[in-house]
Amino acid sequence: MGALLALASAVCYGIADVTGGLLSRRAHFALVALAGQGGGLVLTLLAAPVFSAARPVLSLALSPDTAWGALSGVGTGVGMVHLYRGVSRGAMSVVVPVSAVTGVTLPVVAGVVLLGDRPSAPAWLGILVAVPALWLVSLERSRPGAPVLTGASLDGLIAGAGIALQYLALAQARPSAGIWPVAVGRVTALAVIAAIAVPLLAARRRRAPLRRPPRTPAGASQGASAEAPALLPPRYAAGSAVTGMIAALALVLYLLAAREQLVVIAVVLSSLYPAVPVVLGLTALGERPTRLQAAGLCAAAAATALITAG
């Protein structure tokens, strides 16, 4: 059951990554992340009473589970901002594999060294296969000789570290807390993203003051005036909120999975989300995977089988 919950979490995360990435290319990435966490907060506040036993508000507020949920939200906020910033730069083929591998490697190391997790031999083999599989399946077609963007690589590393913190902290919450730690994490993530977004938006406003742009002569290039994306039109705000709800559902599923099995196993299976965009492209858009992506998909399937068998 735990493995199925973790795989369902990966599917939800994959869908949220696709929609969030597309939205961050059409609107300001920080506002996409902010609206997403707002949608996730609404979903978890509605769902938390269903999954949780009745507890006094004061005891919940003073619970260590609340602190773990808040720490998880710090990771979410940092991770989503840097993930969306990297994707908004058009560097998805760099950011996604770097963040995915970092986001799964750090929790595995921490789980074994700090938490005392001891996966079985087949599970260990599956973990070792899963890490390169995540990298391969995330790679997109790119121009031959295209440079690797240093800024995008850094975005991917920071996003992966945030995702790792999100996973590890959330797994420490006790089952008696239900999914309230996920709701608390959405509040913290909102605060973190707002703290990052405010100076970014202020700097943007200083660079491009609100005034009517000069007329462009007929036949002239429109590139300069179209460089900055719209902040967050209402339809994109709604899409971002729905994306955040799907991502919050992914976290709820991960939390439930981590209570059924080792944290290491839950993290690895939940981190298979980069395969989802590739599978969606194959089934819905009729795309053909590259040889590396096909190898990554096969390796991911083998890793899943090994981990669940172990």
From TrEMBL:
The chain crosses the membrane at residues 26-51, 94-115, 121-139, 146-167, 179-202, 236-256, 262-285. This is Multidrug transporter. Keywords: Membrane, Transmembrane, Transmembrane helix. It comes from Streptomyces daqingensis. Gene3D superfamilies: 1.10.3730.20. The keyword Aminoacyl-tRNA synthetase does not apply. The lineage of its organism: Bacteria, Bacillati, Actinomycetota, Actinomycetes, Kitasatosporales. It comes from the Bacteria. InterPro entries: EmrE-like.
